[in-house]
From TrEMBL:
PANTHER family: 2-OXOGLUTARATE (2OG) AND FE(II)-DEPENDENT OXYGENASE SUPERFAMILY PROTEIN-RELATED
Key words, A-Z: Iron, Metal-binding, Oxidoreductase
Homology family: Belongs to the iron/ascorbate-dependent oxidoreductase family.
BP GO annotations: small molecule biosynthetic process
One Pfam family of this chain: DIOX_N
Start and end residues of each Fe2OG dioxygenase domain: 172-272
GO molecular function: metal ion binding; oxidoreductase activity
Stated name of the protein: Putative 1-aminocyclopropane-1-carboxylate oxidase
Length: 340
């Protein structure tokens, strides 16, 4: 599953790569902050290298994901997520019948390993619980938090500003996702959208399909074994006063030589703590550039958890056929845009 065939695809997006192993070097944080300033207000997709996870670590998680999706459906559906209530923890099955065109993927979301999220899991997950926990904690502590410090330095604010809003032990719906797209003849598998969390981490996956919207149109995102694809999401855009852009991306049907294969994904969604309000930071950099903004209308009283739950529940209503067209308003008059 890790051999990349001879893909007949055209343009790859030209993305920057942040080597976070430099953080341990003198001046490393400042060097990375300068690099961030070169691209982050234009394209919130980038690569992270030097992250401390081996190819073996990633393959191990993919092996567990494969075993999970091979479980009988009746076993997986014992652990259904309550997406109607805005809760993604647990399993989501792919749709059947008339709804198949809207929802052709399976997911299993494993939340933070804190007392708040203690819940039943399939025996397969329990058998590998400690290694899944170690993998998740590494992402949070060794990749997410260092990146948040780099962003803070770039914005010329306290280095711990974003970190203090992402404490692992605090309440919040951060999770690791195993995901499987089933082969589908339709050209677009996930319509262009932004994510609603802080940062999304996408691990190496050889079946092409992920595209990012650039000023020159949609371009494929290359997945390399040694790199993690990272994209900025809504919560970080709000918290950074709009400077760190929530990236528009989509998933399309893979090229012909891969179109008949399932597309397995390993993704980590980092989120702010549940009670964090989505207010923009006061930044000397933004003040100097004339970009300092006040809180987006409607968001002044909205927490990160309320924003996430509202988006999940809205997405559920469309996927489940409760509403026939996609709703645009998320919460408190704040709207979501969709992109073809």
């Amino acid at each position: 599953m890790y051999v990349i065939p001879n893909l007949h695809i055209v343009e790859w997006a030209d993305l920057e790569a942040l080597d976070i192993s430099k953080l341990n070097q003198p001046g490393g944080k400042q060097e990375l902050a300068v690099q961030v300033l070169r691209f982050i207000d234009k394209n919130g997709f980038f690569y992270v290298k030097g992250h401390g996870l081996s190819d073996k670590d990633v393959k191990r998680q993919y092996a567990i994901a494969t075993e999970f999706f091979n479980l009988p459906l009746e076993e997986k559906t014992k652990y259904l997520a309550n997406t109607a209530a805005g809760d993604f923890r647990g399993y989501k099955a792919k749709a059947t019948g008339d709804l198949t065109s809207k929802d052709n993927d399976e997911r299993y979301n494993i939340p933070k390993f804190t007392p708040e999220h203690e819940r039943p899991h399939p025996q397969l997950i329990l058998d590998h619980y400690e290694e899944i926990k170690e993998f998740s904690l590494h992402i949070h502590n060794k990749i997410l938090l260092p990146l948040l410090r780099v962003f803070a330095i770039a914005l010329e604010i306290d280095e711990e500003y974003f970190v203090s809003r992402h404490r692992y032990e605090a309440e919040g719906l951060e999770y690791l996702r195993y995901m499987k797209y089933h082969p589908d003849p339709k050209p677009i598998w996930a319509i262009g959208h932004t994510d609603y969390n802080t940062l999304t981490f996408l691990f190496h996956q050889p079946v092409a399909g992920l595209q990012v919207q650039t000023k020159d149109g949609w371009k494929y995102v290359r997945s390399e074994p040694e790199s993690i694809i990272v994209n900025v999401a809504d919560a970080l855009e709000f918290l950074s006063g709009g400077y760190l852009k929530s990236t528009v991306h989509r998933v399309v049907r893979p090229p012909k030589d891969q179109a008949g294969r399932p597309r397995l994904g390993l993704i980590y969604f980092a989120r702010p703590e549940a009670k964090v309000r989505l207010e923009p930071v006061r930044s000397p950099l933004l003040e100097r550039l004339g970009l300092q903004r006040d809180v987006e209308e409607g968001l002044a009283s909205v927490t990160a958890e309320e924003w996430a739950r509202a988006r999940i529940a809205k997405d559920h209503r469309f996927r489940a056929g409760i509403v026939k067209t996609r709703e645009t308003e998320i919460i408190a008059g704040v709207h979501q845009k969709y992109y073809d």
